[in-house]
Structures are given as structure tokens and as C-alpha cells.
């Protein structure tokens, strides 16, 4: 039979397919190179020699500069022991280059291989090789039959060798597929482990919820924010979140399921004493709920809103305050110069109080802040309302440095108390008096504001105006303190306990 090869008339050609990086990588990852002989492949080469009547049959894997015999039968020593040769002794490399059947009747006369050293060293004369191809198209080597004398190969010979080679090829493909799947599984496991580490490390809460609103997964952040020591898996949404925010989040999750779009909500969980911001992201039959504690942000927003309202309030009443101060100065002054001096001092004190409030509305707090002590702050805020005559105003307490954040809130509530005392309390009458005192007990500042000699009151006020709300916000929320107010018949006493750590902020 005539030699069949795309190289039959082409002479020597080592081409580029053998050194192709992707092919070599696939060959290396096949797990076949430099491994022990295996019966599943050895049976194939033995069967080939028996059915074709040849002396030698090989399963040859062609590497960059060598061929490795994964299976061989009939190969002479020392090659049968070494199980490899350099490519100078390889006919199989031409099968890899062409990707097709190679039939050589007499290698000594064939222009493609006539100078191949396998003719001399391995006594190769007749050669029939078929490619071993992976599922993704890479030719790893050749399954071949070899004889030491010339032979005209028949169509039946080719079909027989291809049939055996297909079985060998299927085994190799199966192993590669199993190895690829194992590698993919290992990668997926590693990705899941990394994702789990991220989910468990984030401070945000993350839970997955099904259509029955049951929790399938909850991370450590969720348990921390919700204050739950045990697992949340299997519990319903309204069991996990307090009622006050659970209703809001349930509606948000329902909306995400219904629309297939991300839904967002922010709610106060009064049972936790926290504001939570949440986002529900749908995916199939589950929704992933991401939530975080935004209590500090909400408190800051509330504080800013109240401060804005306070500024509007101050601007609205500015002229009334100035008119009152002018009248007060006029009644107590004996000449215009004395009146001007008193009035100027009060206006400057009010301006300095406003400067103390201003950092709360500035994005750069540190740039506007100057170190100040509580005693100095009280004097700045109260002095504009001091009446002539001694004894009606008492200020006393140890030195206490205020922090940049606490200064604003302390200034606000003292300013508000002073204004109220001047309008409605002890400073509104000539005989009234005001005592402002503070002490340090352990890690708490005990602050007391005592008014006496003011207008008679039958009972405590029935309703609390904006000023009272502002005082409570500053002391209880912003300064994290305790507040109590008593209303004697002709006065008022306020006691506040504020942590030193908050005062220092």
C-alpha cells in the first residue's frame, strides 16, 4: 500500500505544534508523563501486536524534546527499560504535527523519516500511527504499530489500530475530565472558603431568606448586630428582627421578591435601640439581606436637623434678644458710655457662644475648635444675662476640659437653659438667683443647675417645648448622660450625670 502522509513529499519538518504551550500544558496536566506502566494501557498495545502481527506497539506521548512510552510491547532493551527516547528517534512526533494517520511502508526509503535514528537504533522499518487526541483537540501523542521489515499496511490494519486507539483515547479523556473536575471542585471549594471568610469577617449583617421568610444563612455580623448568641438558621424574619423594624424589612423583602429588583429600607429597631439600614437583593427563590447599624449616622442627622432649627430659631429671635439686652442695659446704666460698655460685652459673649455652636455644622471640626474648659464655657454663655448686683449668679466646679465634639452639645444645652431662665425662670426677676455647679464622681461628671426666686408655679409644665427637647437630646443622646428635672414652687433644678469619656470626646 502506498505511503499516506501529508509529509510524504515535504522532507523533514519539525513544525511548531509539538512546542505549542497549550498542548504541552495539557500533556503535563494529563498526569500520564513519567508514571508507572498500567495494565489498562498495556493491554491495548499487546492487543495491537497480536491483531496486526507486528513486533512492537507503543502508546507514545510526545513532549517538547522527547517521547515517553506510557505503554509498550516488544521494544528492545535498553529502550523498554528507559521507556523514552529523544525526538531524534521519534516517528510519532510527525503524527502530532499532522494530527492525522501516518503510514510508512519502508522508513529507509521514506523522505520524511529516512534519516531518523530510530531506524538504526530501534530497528524501525514499517510504521503505522494514529493520533491520540484530547476532548479539547490537543494531540498528545500516537498509538502506533512498528515492524522491523517493510510492510504494506491495509485499510483493515488502519481500522484495527484506530479502534484500539479509541479505547485508549477514551481512558485518557476520562482521566483528564476527572482531573479537570477535581481541579474545578478544588477551586470552587477554595472560592467558597474565601467567600465564607469575607462574609464572616465583615461587620455588616448578611442573611439569606427564602419565600417563606425563613433564614437560610446568617453571618457573624448579623448575630452581633442583632445581639443573638445562637444560630439564626431556620428562624423566620420576624423572629430575627424586632417587631418595630421587622415589619419594615418584611415589606422590603416582599417587594424584592415581587419586582425582582433590589429594595432598600431604614428602620428604628426600638427593641435593640438601633437604627438599621438594609438592602434586599433577590436571586431566584432567595433574597440576600445586607444590613448595618447606622445609629451614629441617624443621631448625627437628627442633631444637625435640630441644630438647623435652632439656628433658624436664633435668627428669628435675634432682634428681640438684642432689644431686650438694650432695655436691660438702659435700665441699669447711669450714662450712655456705661450702657454701651454693658451692651457690647453681652453681644460679644453671644457671638462667642455662636462660634462654639458653629463647628457642629462645619465639615472640618478640628480647624474651628479651640480648647475650652467647662467653667469658661459657662461664663461665656451666662455672663450676658448677669444682672447688676452681687449674689444672684453662682458658678463653681473643678477644672474640666471639654472635647471638640462635646463642647458643642454642652454649649447648646447651657445656652438653652440660660435663655429659658432669662425668659421664664429665675433670671427674669430682679430677686431671682441661679447656681451652676459640677463635681467629678469616679468616671461621671455630676452637673447641677438650680434656679430659685423665679415666678411661682403651681406644678411642673404640662408640655415640653423645643427648648426642653433640645436639652434632652444634648444630654441623654449626644452626651449619653442621665437627666432629671424637678420643679419647686419658685424655681427649677436640673441634675445630669455625664460620662467623663464622652465629655472628653
UniProtKB/TrEMBL annotation:
Query: Locations of Basic and acidic residues compositional bias?
Result: 11-22
Name the CDD domains on file: PAS
Enzyme Commission code(s) on record: 2.7.13.3
> Keywords in UniProt for this one?
ATP-binding, Kinase, Nucleotide-binding, Phosphoprotein, Transferase
Give all residue intervals belonging to the Signal transduction histidine kinase HWE region domain. 310-399
Annotated GAF domain ranges read 36-182
Instruction: Give the reactions, separated by semicolons, that this protein catalyses.
Output: ATP + protein L-histidine = ADP + protein N-phospho-L-histidine
Please give the name of this protein.
Blue-light-activated histidine kinase
Give the species this sequence originates from: Jiella pacifica
Q: What is the lineage of its organism?
A: Bacteria, Pseudomonadati, Pseudomonadota, Alphaproteobacteria, Hyphomicrobiales
